[in-house]
Input
Amino acid sequence: MKKLTLLLLLVSLTLQAKFYRATLNYGDGTEKNGYTDAPGFSDSTIKFRTSKDGDSEKIESELLSAITITFDDNTKTSYYYIYPAALSMKGAVKKEKIKKWLAAVYLGKTNFLYVTMTGNIANSFPGDYYYINVPGNDYALYFTTKHAGFTKVVGEQKLYKKLIAWHFKDICPALVEKSESGEFVTKDMTELIEFYKKTCE
Output
C-alpha cells in the first residue's frame, strides 16, 4: 500500500511539474494568462489552469493562434498553431488539412519553427524538423530535417544550397546570393539562422 501511495504521489508531482506560466493568444486577438503544458505536435486541446495548482480546463487548439511559455529557468518559447506545408515541384504551396503545434527557434521577418519527433531510428525518422513561416501566413513551409544520430549527411551542403535558393529567393535574395557565391557555406540550421539574422533582418 505504501509503495502504491508513493507511486501515486510521484505521478501527481510529475503532472504538476508540467504546468508552466503561459500566455495563450486566441485567434480573435484576445489573450489569457495562466499555466499550461508545452503543446504536443498534434494536440487538439490544451490543458489550462488559471493558477498552477488549480483545476484544469481543456481549450480547443483551433481557438488559439499561439502560446508563449515561461519555463522554470525563465527561458521563453513560443508555439504556433499553424498549417505545416510543403512546396510542390512547380512551386505551389500544399498545406496539410489540420494545423499542428510548432515551436519557434527565431522570430523576425521570417520565422523559423520546428518540431522534435521522437522514436526509434530503426522504424521511424526521429529528429528536428524545421519550417519557415512568413508572418501573416497561416502556414509554415517544411525546410529540412536534422535527423537524430546523424553527425554528417553526404551532400548536405549542396542540399542546403538548393533549399536556400528555393525558399529564400523572394524573402531574402541576399542570402541566396551569398550562398551561391560561396561566401556562406551552410553546415547546420543554427548557422543558417544566425547568417539570416545578419543578412536579412
Remarks:
- The two ends are 61 Å apart (CA to CA).
- DSSP finds four helices and eleven strands in the chain.
- The chain has two domains: 19-79, 81-200.
- Residues 1-17 have pLDDT under 50 and may be disordered.
